């Protein structure tokens, strides 16, 4: 145990599987905090900062899996017979630099300002006025300079950072899981792996909490002051800060992995002594062991073909694809869903996701591992446990269809400005007779609540001629008043959207805990089915091939697919330079049905795959 010639005696006791598991757990906590927690918590802020839609942000998230695909086959096949801890260490260093690269767009991008009006009270600008502008619906200083062509550069940097994270993270679970499984007894493997995966599941909790903390600070908090709070729709938090913190921590965690030996001699000795007492198993393992496996890359095609012909392995992997598709799509956009559906701030949505939803996953992984060890579940028993948990989860998704909120009454977006006869289909349009000459900007969301109980996109869209008490708001005063009406000098609105009576947030969060428990509880049993369905020398490569399949059919496409589905529920886009930027307003009902419906379909398909595996095992 040591690095190079530096091998002090005082650290030789650390060359044991318990310390390796502890290091793996810490690494998974930090990497999970970054990729699953923090990035998901700030992705909505990144969308607003660089004016991109959910489809583009889904591509950024999926780029992590592209990096994994570039390396996972070679890492899992060749690394399984080489110095596994060092390979993990090299990957961790790559992850560290990729994480720091995430903060580069903040450094090179122009300073973010609130429509270049940060030195003024922007409400005074966003009122009904007839001052000339260069283009209809644009504030002075909001012009299309080079049509904002530099945003694609920032997106490419984020994609490159994700690719580095994917390449660096490949050895962690593929080789790390094999390293643990090779140094412990079969009956102890679920326990050790459950500890690793469960502590790794704590990472998103920390990541979401860190995201909630960083988003409380303004994006340029060290250089600029703005007169708004973090609850304002136009607030942009310090999304970049967490990447620097996580990047430095990841680089530090590379050191212990560089110091671990290729083989833990004491652990191997204990394992061989235990195997010597099991004569039949010893003969079987030694007969199946292929010492030439993993020596050269020329045998990779033959090894891939052997795995593809293994029905239990391949069908189980396809079922896991559906599970991962839900995690990588549903969970990634869960903070945005909570924020949009229940009207919470971004920070509060992150706290709910990380502090309430993720702990259910931690408990699920631990209990799933405990049940597997306690009852010594063989593949048949493990798949039966998976089927039971999947049935509960599918039943829970039906409740999600009803645990939501109705759309806010927003003039011009979800209902007409004034009541009209008939039942014609309503098309969103923020312009009406009461504000058509106000020259309002459709890119500046500053909601106000009228005394009529209707929310307006901004004081300008409500026809307000002054921001002090929102006096003289033509759209609120009634449809029978013409443009030449007498101004009523009384407050007609209050700042912020109108309050709703929706009380489904608490039941939704309770059901979310149950759902995450069911999904995570099947993780350890499915891992055991995978490892026990292949030969011992194939375990590392089987996990690597499984990761390839998961990335091709789950991790890569589903964030893009969910992002595209979410974009179809957008009512109003932030238009700039004749292109769509970030979504300003979603149809809550359509968002809920499409978002939850996609996850429910994936869960049902996964259930069919696992049922097929059970039938195959039952016939054996």
SSE map:
Elements: H1 17-50, H2 54-79, H3 84-101, H4 104-108, H5 122-125, H6 151-181, H7 189-214, H8 241-259, H9 265-276, H10 279-288, H11 300-308, H12 311-331, H13 334-342, H14 346-374, H15 379-400, E1 448-450, E2 455-456, H16 474-477, E3 493-495, H17 505-521, H18 523-532, H19 539-555, H20 557-567, E4 570-576, E5 579-586, H21 588-619
Antiparallel strand pairs: 1-2, 1-3, 4-5
Helix pairs in contact: 1-6, 1-7, 1-8, 1-14, 2-6, 2-19, 2-20, 3-6, 3-8, 6-19, 7-14, 12-19, 12-20, 12-21, 13-14, 14-17, 15-17, 15-18, 15-21
Write a concise synopsis of the structure shown.
The protein is mainly alpha-helical and 620 residues long. Helix content is 59%, strand content 4%.
DSSP helix count?
Answer: 21
Number of β-strand runs: 5
Q: Give the spatial strand order of the biggest sheet.
A: 2-1-3
Given helix and strand content, the structural type is mainly alpha
Tell me the major beta sheet.
3 strands, antiparallel
> How is the CATH topology of the domain at 1-118 and 150-274 named?
Growth Hormone, Chain: A
Question: CATH superfamily of the domain at 1-118 and 150-274, please?
Answer: MFS general substrate transporter like domains
